[in-house]
Amino acid sequence: MRFADMHRFKAAPPFEAFTKLTWAAKPFSIVILLAICVAPVSAASLSRSVEVRGTPAEIWSVIGPFCAIGKWHPAIGTCAEDGKEPATRTLVTKDGKATFVELQTISSQQEHLYGYTFVSSPLPVTNYRSVLKVTAEDADHSMVTWSGEYKPYSGKEKDADAALSGIYEAGLEAIKAKFAN
């Protein structure tokens, strides 16, 4: 608008201006409301450890191979590895009701650890990644730690935590029992 034409400009009554502003802001308000309603649940983490009798090398020789979980975890019935690099394993529970497909993301014989992510899982989580690691405590004992990070489905936070806690704890107790003698 040119300065010369400003005398022709009529200001809208305050209510009309407010109404126009409100309608102009509605799409923005709807976007904010939707963002709040569908905002992802924040990431969660979980870590469990158990002291085990034995050196890291002794323990890792039993639990370290990626598909060895089928031999030490009480809930796992079968484990099949695809033979590729990086390895993918398919775990089926003993009752046959659940299948997990996991991609190995890191493996270190020297550090006695491996990491993996879920490719598919029946658990109510996304972006799951986990590490299983053995560290020395003293000459005769080691610490086995199983930790994970994930985003639980909205409204399923407690279910996700309980399921993963149960998996970690059962596995770690089985490892401890295996080396108790």
CATH topology of the largest domain: Alpha-D-Glucose-1,6-Bisphosphate, Chain A, domain 4
The residue fraction in helices comes out at: 25-40%
Question: Which descriptor suits the 3D outline?
Answer: globular
Structural class by sheet pairing and helices: alpha+beta
Radius of gyration: 27 Å
Task: Name the assembly state.
Answer: single chain
The low-confidence runs, each spanning 5 or more residues with pLDDT under 50, are 1-12, 17-25, 27-39
Quickly describe the structure.
The chain has four helices and seven strands.
List the helices and strands and how they pair.
Blueprint: H1 14-37, E1 44-53, H2 56-63, H3 69-72, E2 76-81, E3 88-93, E4 99-108, E5 113-120, E6 125-136, E7 141-152, H4 157-178
Antiparallel strand pairs: 1-7, 2-3, 3-4, 4-5, 5-6, 6-7
Tell me what you see in this structure.
Helices cover 32% and strands 35% of the residues. It has 181 residues and is α+β, with helices and mostly antiparallel strands. The chain folds into 2 domains: 10-36; 43-178, Alpha-D-Glucose-1,6-Bisphosphate, Chain A, domain 4, CATH 3.30.530. The protein has a 7-stranded antiparallel sheet. A hairpin with a 4-residue loop joins strand 5 (113-120) and strand 6 (125-136). The longest helix has 24 residues, at 14-37. The radius of gyration is 27 Å and the shape is globular. The model is unreliable at 1-12, 17-25 and 27-39 (pLDDT under 50).
What would the keywords be for this entry?
single chain, 181 residues, alpha+beta, Alpha-D-Glucose-1,6-Bisphosphate, Chain A, domain 4, 2 domains, seven-stranded antiparallel beta sheet, 4 helices, disordered N terminus
